[in-house]
Design brief:
Layout (H helix, E strand, L loop, with lengths): L6 E4 L32 H14 L4 E6 L9 H14 L4 E8 L6 H9 L3 E5 L4 H4 L12 H13 L4 E7 L7 H10 L4 E6 L3 E3 L18 E3 L6 H18 L5 E2 H10 L16 E4 L4 E3 L10 E4 L5 H5 L2 H12 L3 H4 L4 H4 L9 E2 L5 E3 L3 H23 L7 H16 L21
Parallel strand pairs: 1-2, 1-10, 2-3, 3-4, 4-5, 5-6, 6-9
Antiparallel strand pairs: 7-8, 10-11, 11-12, 13-14
Length: 432
């Protein structure tokens, strides 16, 4: 883990949300704070967190991230005050904010806040209506698609920069191109695809949690809404095949960009693909700091920033051990894998499967990632070479088109329509 660069996902409203998405791993974190009646990061905690976070970053730009639960439940004025606190402590540094929302409550007042303060908004949407509304329902069990789309239109109408976050689960993973084209048609120029993988304990744990950590030793099963490994691989490959032919340099898909970093010999900007983790933490509404957004469990609580300095907790032995364990516990099967340089075992949260020889710690999504990384290898090699030669990686589209045409020319029958599109038979056109 880097000792100078870290990122914190702030949960100013904890796990409280106005939706009841069946697959959400964070809603039940409410059980960790049974005495709490008012779910909002108090002024003194917010002030201390912002001050400490800015002071801990010896960089000209400091990036904050706000999530939940659903942060819009706190109201626009809460975040106007938050921005004022950031300005108070900025000390000449540029402050940037990322804000993740389900979009249901977005109105023009929110858009004005985002636009005035250059917030980057992440909008959660799982695809067209029938796919989105499978799991993303409100507390009354009603669909949310129309309300999310109104929120999306509010952002577009007010010129707010946004990206989309799409969870990939059992119900939508077989419709990759429908999702990808839908997002493009509705103005998403930057997409994140996040696999949903959860395990359900047969009995609720002592902490009141049913969705359990990878090291849980009791009886459990993979949740029925989880994406299957090869299903996830096919999803990624299908979108990549369309993207690499039409959209490189025009539409940005987080995983594809990160893959190019790795093929170019750079360290992945996304923590799940780094050799070690531990530099992406989470802070709860009361100031409790946890090792990771996906590891908000009592055993991963580092302390409280109102009792110990943020930097001290971030660089504690406990957090260092957490980060190093990602590499040190990698099974031999993974260490010898041809795509280890890209995968590195992915997120420790998903490492509850066993290798073919019975060693524990294999990533549940291993087969899907192998399929994807091997599939994209020739394209990534080409783009990395272009990058190294100070040429545009988007040149891959021309390369793919040429490769495709050569294949078509080799396989075309004499009386088939010519692959060049002239309208003539192959024998009277390019066959000559």
């Amino acid at each position: 883990m880097s000792t100078t660069n870290f990122h914190v996902m702030a949960k100013p409203i904890g796990p409280i949300c106005n939706l009841d998405c069946k697959y959400c791993f964070y809603l039940e974190k409410e059980s960790l704070y049974p005495q709490v009646s008012k779910w909002a990061m108090k002024e003194e905690v917010l002030d201390s967190y912002i001050r400490q976070y800015i002071e801990a970053h010896d960089t000209p730009v400091v990036d904050f991230a706000w999530q939940g639960g659903e942060p819009t439940l706190l109201g626009v004025d809460y975040f106007r005050n938050l921005v004022a606190i950031q300005r108070k402590y900025a000390n000449g540094k540029q402050i940037r904010n990322a804000f993740q929302t389900n979009g249901v409550l977005l109105k023009d007042d929110w858009a004005a806040l985002f636009k005035e303060n250059d917030f980057l908004v992440g909008l959660s949407i799982d695809g067209p209506r029938e796919l989105h509304d499978t799991y993303r329902l409100d507390k009354g069990g009603q669909p949310t698609f129309d309300r999310v789309m109104r929120g999306l239109e509010t952002l577009k109408r007010n010129g707010v920069e946004f990206n989309t976050l799409t969870t990939v689960h059992h119900a939508n993973a077989d419709h990759p191109l429908a999702i990808y084209r839908f997002l493009k048609e509705n103005g998403s120029g930057f997409m994140q695809f996040i696999p949903i993988v959860e395990r359900i304990a047969h009995q609720v744990t002592a902490d009141g949690l049913q969705l359990i950590s990878p090291d849980f030793g009791g009886a459990a099963q993979v949740a029925p809404w989880s994406v299957e490994p090869r299903q996830f691989g096919r999803f990624l490959c299908s979108i990549f095949d369309e993207w690499v032919r039409k959209d490189v340099g025009r539409t940005y898909v987080q995983l594809f960009d990160v893959s190019l970093e790795m093929w170019a010999g750079m360290e992945a900007s996304l923590c799940v693909f780094r050799k070690q983790c531990g530099a992406a933490l989470a802070i709860e509404h009361g100031g409790d700091l946890y090792s990771c957004d996906h590891f908000v469990y009592p055993q991963n609580r580092l302390g409280n920033i109102m009792e110990s300095p943020l930097e001290t907790l971030v660089h504690s032995d406990q957090q260092r051990s957490f980060g190093e364990a990602k590499e040190s516990t990698l099974p031999r099967y993974c260490r010898e894998c041809d795509v280890r340089f890209a995968c590195n075992g992915e997120c420790p949260k998903h490492r509850f499967a066993s290798t073919p020889d019975g060693e524990a710690g294999l990533n549940y999504l291993c087969a899907g990632y192998k399929m994807f990384f091997r599939h994209i290898d020739p394209y990534m090699r080409f783009m990395a070479a272009e990058l190294a030669s100070n040429r545009a990686p988007a040149n891959v589209m021309q390369w793919v088109a040429a490769q495709t045409r050569q294949t078509e020319l080799k396989t075309a029958g004499r009386n088939d329509p010519c692959p060049c599109g002239s309208g003539r038979k192959f024998k009277h056109c390019c066959a000559k």
